[in-house]
Design a protein that fits this description.
single chain, about 425 residues, alpha/beta, 10 helices, 18 strands, globular
Length: about 425
């Protein structure tokens, strides 16, 4: 009996390993009548909505839907029955912007959602963010104060993460005052030589980091940093507790006091990471890039704008851009500081300008690659496209229209290949 039991258990485990859950059988699709999802202002976009089960239209399905400018839908309907599982919708915008229809189907007590976001003359979008007259002086002073302190860099080999081709270290160095450190994972090719370098800056939150071993194996120095001044190799539980506790909402800290804003030492720390890379004898003194997504997209813009040693930059669905558009009823970037506020605190509005990615984007001079999705509701395409439009340096835009605040594999691969080309590794 014991043998039979263990045989059955082993069989069930094997079947579980092979039969992974993937996707849902019920799918809501919303598609436009232009293949690139792009329209001229004043044109009409025709959307097709389909609710399918097992690939076929589902009869008499109940849906809710909303439609209108991104983050400001002006049409909302609930409890609509689609007799044959489909419907048509027409949307338009007279001025440049993004129009979204979102549909939620209710089937057997569960909700299934689909969205489509059409662009109307997006190349004409401009951000509403104003730039403080002392913006350059503010950041010059912040970096000068930080660089009064020696880097005092330390590193520790992490043997369990090393490969035959790459040595992996946890490193730390001084940020903007004594005792405030930047921690990260440094990956250096084992073979002696001079190499290009890549700085990876993180998205929002607090977490451990593994380092970019793969890119280092292609022949580059990589440094992946955290922003909170704590080691990046601690147990996950510590970061979870910080996210729920001391670091909960850190992006809101001292918004009305630019000198005390949480992101002041975040930005200086990211630039000091460039100082650290430049101090490495293995760096070739030529190619040095910065890249990140979401909050990391903002930090990429900031580092590229503030340090001319940066020779290329890639920002993916860059957050923290164009907060002030919300004051004009236009979708703004995460964290959406002023969204829905009729009478915002003007001190906070003025303070946020020092930390708006738009004002850094205006100062980027190196070749840059941007990518984002039209369906993103964390970083709306309105703010992402407006930010891209103000960059005057050589730039490239790769849109993956269906993505929300996530990646497609093809998008990731294109991003990696662009970075490798900038480092002359492809």
């Amino acid at each position: 009996m014991k043998r039979v039991f263990f045989f059955c258990l082993a069989t069930l485990l094997a079947l579980a390993a092979q039969g992974q859950i993937r996707g849902t059988n019920i799918v809501v699709t919303v598609t436009p009548d232009h293949q690139d999802w792009n329209y001229r202002a004043g044109e009409k976009a025709e959307f097709s909505v389909n609710v399918r089960k097992s690939g076929t239209l589902l009869d008499n399905v109940i849906v809710d839907y909303e439609a209108g400018p991104v983050m400001y839908p002006d049409v909302k309907r609930q409890g609509v029955t689609l007799k044959d599982g489909s419907m048509k919708w027409t949307g338009s915008m007279r001025t440049s912007g993004f129009y979204r229809i979102r549909v939620v189907a209710h089937v057997d007590g569960k909700d299934y959602e689909g969205s489509c976001t059409a662009a109307f003359s997006p190349e004409q979008l401009q951000p509403a963010t104003q730039c403080p007259t002392d913006f350059d002086a503010f950041w010059s002073r912040a970096l000068c104060e930080a660089r009064q302190w020696p880097l005092d860099a330390h590193r520790e080999l992490l043997p369990e993460r090393c490969t035959d081709e790459v040595n992996v270290y946890e490193v730390n160095f001084t940020n903007d005052q004594q005792g405030r450190r930047v921690y990260g994972i440094l990956c250096v090719p084992v073979k002696e030589g001079k190499y290009p370098a890549l700085l990876r800056v993180p998205g929002a939150g607090c977490r451990p980091y593994s380092g970019d071993v793969w890119t280092a194996s292609q022949g580059a120095i990589t440094l992946e940093i955290g922003i909170h001044g704590i080691p990046v190799t601690l147990p996950q539980k510590i970061y979870d507790n910080l996210n729920r506790g001391a670091l909960d909402g850190y992006w809101q800290t001292n918004l009305d006091e630019p000198e005390r804003n949480y992101y002041r030492h975040v930005v200086t720390g990211a630039v000091r990471a460039v100082d650290y890379i430049a101090s490495l004898p293995q760096w070739n003194g030529q190619e040095l890039g910065v890249t990140g997504s979401s909050q990391g997209g903002f930090l990429s813009l900031a580092v590229a704008a503030l340090d001319r040693r940066v020779t290329f930059m890639a920002a993916v669905h860059d957050a923290m851009c164009d907060y002030e558009s919300a004051l004009h009823g236009v979708a703004c970037g995460w964290p959406h500081y002023f969204y829905g506020q009729r009478n915002p605190d003007m001190k906070k509005v003025e303070g946020a300008r020092y930390y708006d990615g738009v004002n850094f984007a205006r100062r980027v001079t190196c070749p840059s690659w941007f990518s984002f999705g039209y369906n993103d509701d964390v970083v709306p395409p309105t703010s992402a496209y407006a930010t891209y439009n103000v960059v005057t340096a050589p730039k490239m835009l790769s849109v993956y229209q269906m993505t929300a605040h996530f990646w497609y594999q093809e998008q990731w691969d294109e991003w990696e290949n662009w970075l490798l080309k900038q480092m002359k590794l492809r």
